[in-house]
Design brief:
The chain is α/β, with parallel strands linked by helices. It has eleven helices and 13 strands. The chain folds into two domains: 124 residues, Aspartate Aminotransferase, domain 1 (Alpha-Beta Complex), CATH 3.90.1150; 220 residues, Aspartate Aminotransferase, domain 2. Bound molecules: 4'-deoxy-4'-aminopyridoxal-5'-phosphate.
């Protein structure tokens, strides 16, 4: 606490990201990064952009990237917004669309940044409890007063996917509110709601280059929605910072979208590793949710999650442990390369067989 802080700054409970330690080399399975490097074409494009003219501001409309994404998703450029990582896009969306007079709805177990944004913007939150198996109870989002809804698909940290068609009901029942579908992990086995954008003016689909395109370090995300929603996001953005995406990120992002073959191949490798890791974890007694993401959510009946977390860390393997009601028996483990996951599995086998 400082006497220099505004009441707003003093009231905040900021999001705590997974650690990025520098003390030694870890196998990092704690922040859902992609274990494979980005497409070599991305690096070429960034180098070329660096040789271009960094004296100049970037294009505030991000026109080249917006058009590239519009083509990719078969939408018009007025249906696409880009931002500095999907975290920024989500925060702008909370500011642009959610009504402080009514609560915003999200699951009790979900991406913890939603709560932080809600508090930042003075929004009340009404938490929808996941069922005992961590399934998203979609029916509970209907007929409940709200000033907006946000649902990640797949959910984090549970990794579980809701089939696309089930979102139609929520969109129909909440026609006067914006429903954000956060698709940070959709490319690892889900079907995107991008195809609902022309049907429902109240859906905002948010995606990122951080996971499936291996570019968490570049900070590029986007939203797809009706023209009026995209207009709302641009109003908010241009009231904060017109240049949220720098020249290097713009160039790299365009190249990443263009190199579809590379992305399809790396996502398939991650998915194959995930499916075999799930099998092996179940064989040694772990409960593992049905994952369609680049991470798994696991619990062991005999050894506490905290013990596994601590012992893995001692052996140089970092995973994520959330000391929170309902999920404190679980660990979230990002999918690394086959070699990294072999080290993880060996270590975890020893821990649970002691
Ligand atoms: N949504 C979810 C559900 C996430 O897990 C993350 C990653 N922490 C994000 C959004 C934000 O990703 P980024 O800002 O890197 O695009």
């Amino acid at each position: 606490m400082s006497r220099f802080w505004s009441p707003l700054a003093a009231s905040l409970v900021p999001y705590v990201p997974g650690e990025q330690p520098k003390d030694k080399k870890y196998i990092k399975l704690n922040t859902n990064e992609n274990p494979y490097p980005p497409s070599p074409k991305v690096l070429e494009a960034i180098k070329a952009a660096a040789d271009d003219d960094l004296r100049l501001y970037p294009d505030p409309t991000c026109d080249t990237l917006v058009r590239k994404l519009a083509d990719y998703f078969d939408l018009s450029k007025d249906q696409v917004f880009v931002g500095n990582g999907s975290d920024e896009v989500l925060s702008f969306a909370f500011a642009a669309f959610f009504d402080p007079a009514k609560p915003v709805l999200f699951a009790d177990i979900t991406y913890s940044f939603y709560k932080v944004y809600a508090e930042f913007y003075g929004l009340k939150a009404d938490l929808i409890p996941l069922d005992e198996q961590f399934r998203m109870p979609l029916g509970l989002f209907n007929g409940r007063e709200n000033g907006g809804i946000v649902i990640p698909n797949p959910n984090a940290p549970t990794a579980m996917l809701v089939p696309l068609d089930e979102f139609r009901m929520i969109l129909e029942h909440n026609k006067d509110q914006v429903v954000i579908i956060d698709e940070a992990y959709i490319d690892f086995g889900g079907e995107s709601a991008a195809k609902l954008v022309n049907e429902y003016p109240n859906v905002l689909v948010v995606q990122t280059l951080s996971k499936s395109r291996s570019l968490a370090g570049l900070r590029v995300g986007w939203a797809l929605g009706s023209e009026e929603l995209i207009d709302g996001l641009n109003r908010v953005k241009n009231s904060f910072n017109s240049y949220t995406i720098d020249r290097l990120a713009l160039a790299g992002a365009v190249a990443a979208i263009e190199d579809e073959a590379y992305f399809v191949e790396t996502a398939a490798k991650v998915n194959a590793t995930r499916d075999s890791v799930i099998k092996e974890l179940r064989e040694i007694g772990f409960i593992v949710t049905e994952s369609k993401a680049n991470f798994v959510f696991i619990s062991h009946p005999d050894v506490s999650a905290e013990t596994i977390f601590v012992q893995l860390r001692e052996q140089g393997v970092l995973v994520r442990y959330f000391k929170q009601p309902r999920i404190d028996k679980y660990l979230r483990v990002s999918i690394g390369t086959d070699e990294e996951m072999d080290v993880f599995l060996e270590a975890v086998k020893k821990i649970v067989s002691k």
